[in-house]
Write a structure and sequence with these properties.
Elements (H helix, E strand, L loop, with lengths): L1 H16 L12 H8 L10 H5 L3 H5 L8 E6 L14 E6 L13 H10 L16 E6 L8 H13 L5 E4 L8 H12 L3 E5 L18 E6 L17 E4 L3 E4 L6 E4 L6 H14 L5 H11 L19 H11 L1
Parallel strand pairs: 1-3, 1-4, 2-3, 4-5, 5-6, 6-7
Antiparallel strand pairs: 8-9
Helix pairs in contact: 5-8, 6-7, 9-10
Length: about 325
C-alpha cells in the first residue's frame, strides 16, 4: 500500500512540476513558486519514521545541522534530485572511476543522503533530519561491493580534506580489516563520529565496520517499533532506528522511493549526530553514545539487549540529554 501510494504521488508530482520555466514574465514554473512561497514538504505525511523518532519538535528548536560537514561513504549522491540543495553537496572523491561522486547508479547513497539532508519546507519532497548540513559524497561503490582500501582512504579524506564531523558508512562485510580499523581509529581520535549498519543477515553474524569498537552500530525496526526480521542481533547493536519501509529520495529529479535495510536505519542516527554537533561541536563518539544511552526509548528486554541495543532513538530526548550532559 505504501509503495503504491508513493508511486502514484511521484507521478502526480512529476506531472505538476514538469512545466518548463520561461524567460517571459507571463509564464512561471510551479516548482519555483512552490519552493519560494510554501512552507511544507509534499510527502512529509509518509515520513512515519521521523514522527516515530520525534523529529518535529527538534526542527522547531531551530537546529538544522548548519555548519556541520557529513561524509557519506557510499555509491555517490545523485545531484539530479531537486530535494537536495546543490549548494550543500560537495562532490568529494569518486574512488570507483575517478569521475564524479555526484552520480549514483544504484540509488543507495542518494537514499541515505535524503534521510540526512533533504531540503525542508521547499514545497515538495521530504524533510531531512539535518536539512542544512553539508553532505560530502565519497563514492566507493557502484552496484558492486566496495573495496576496503577505498573505504579506508575515503574515511581519511573525510577527516583531513573535508573536515567532516560525522561519517555515515552504510556498508558491511564479514571480513575483519586492519587497514579499515586503523582508518576508523584515526577518525575517532580526531573526534569524528562514524555510524554504521549492523547488517541484514537476520542472525548473530558480526559485520564490519559496525563490529569495530570506534563505530556506532545501528539496527532496524519497523513502524510498530519491532526489530526487523533482517536486522542482525548481537553486541554490535548499540541503538536502533527506523529501517523498514522507510521513505527517502530516488535518483530521478523528483523521485521518492521506499527501502528496507539496516543501511537505511544508520542515517537517522547520523543526522541526529549532525544536529547535536551543530550545538556542541566538541561532542565525541563517547559523548554521543552516552547521550543516546540516556535518551533512547527502551525496547525489548529491560536495559541493553542485542536486538534493540539501548533502544530506539528519540531526537527530542537526545537534545534534552545533550543540554544536560554539556
Amino acid at each position: 500500500m505504501k509503495k503504491t501510494m508513493a508511486i502514484l504521488l511521484s507521478v502526480l508530482l512529476m506531472l505538476f512540476l514538469a512545466v518548463p520555466t520561461f524567460a517571459s514574465s507571463a509564464f512561471f514554473s510551479p516548482a519555483s513558486v512552490l519552493s519560494r512561497t510554501l512552507r511544507f514538504d509534499l510527502f512529509s505525511f509518509l515520513q512515519w519514521d521521523m514522527r516515530m523518532i520525534r523529529m518535529p519538535s527538534v526542527w522547531d528548536s531551530g537546529l538544522t545541522g548548519q555548519g556541520v560537514q557529513v561524509g557519506i561513504i557510499d555509491s555517490g549522491i545523485s545531484a539530479k534530485n531537486r530535494d537536495l540543495d546543490p549548494d550543500r553537496i560537495l562532490p568529494g572523491i569518486d574512488f570507483v572511476s575517478g569521475d564524479n561522486a555526484l552520480t549514483d547508479t544504484s540509488g543507495h547513497g542518494t537514499f541515505i543522503a535524503g534521510i540526512i539532508g533533504a531540503t525542508r519546507h521547499n514545497g515538495f519532497g521530504i524533510s531531512g533530519i539535518a536539512p542544512e548540513a553539508t553532505l560530502v559524497s565519497m563514492k566507493t561503490s557502484d552496484h558492486k561491493r566496495s573495496e576496503i582500501h577505498h573505504v579506508a582512504d575515503a574515511i581519511r579524506a573525510c577527516v583531513d580534506d573535508y573536515q567532516c564531523s560525522v561519517i555515515n558508512l552504510s556498508s558491511s562485510s564479514k571480513e575483519y580489516s586492519e587497514l579499515l580499523e586503523d582508518a576508523i581509529r584515526y577518525a575517532d581520535k580526531k573526534g569524528v563520529i562514524i555510524v554504521c549498519p549492523v547488517g541484514n543477515n537476520g542472525d548473530e553474524t558480526l559485520n564490519y565496520p559496525a563490529a569495530y569498537e570506534e563505530t556506532i552500530g545501528v539496527g532496524a525496526v519497523d513502524s510498530h517499533k519491532s526489530v526487523s526480521s533482517f536486522s542482525n542481533c548481537n553486541n554490535t547493536v548499540f541503538i536502533v532506528a527506523p529501517g523498514e519501509e522507510t521513505f527517502s529520495l530516488g535518483r530521478t529529479r523528483y523521485g521518492i522511493v521506499f527501502r528496507n535495510g539496516t543501511s537505511y536505519a544508520a542515517p537517522f542516527v547520523t543526522g541526529l549526530a549532525a544536529l547535536l554537533k551543530e550545538r556542541y561541536p566538541q561532542m565525541t563518539r563517547t559523548d554521543f553514545c552516552e547521550i543516546l544511552q540516556r535518551s533512547s526509548l527502551d525496547l525489548g528486554d529491560e536495559g541493553y539487549d542485542p536486538h534493540y541495543g539501548w533502544g530506539l532513538i528519540q531526537a527530542d530526548a537526545a537534545l534534552r540529554a545533550a543540554d544536560e550532559y554539556f
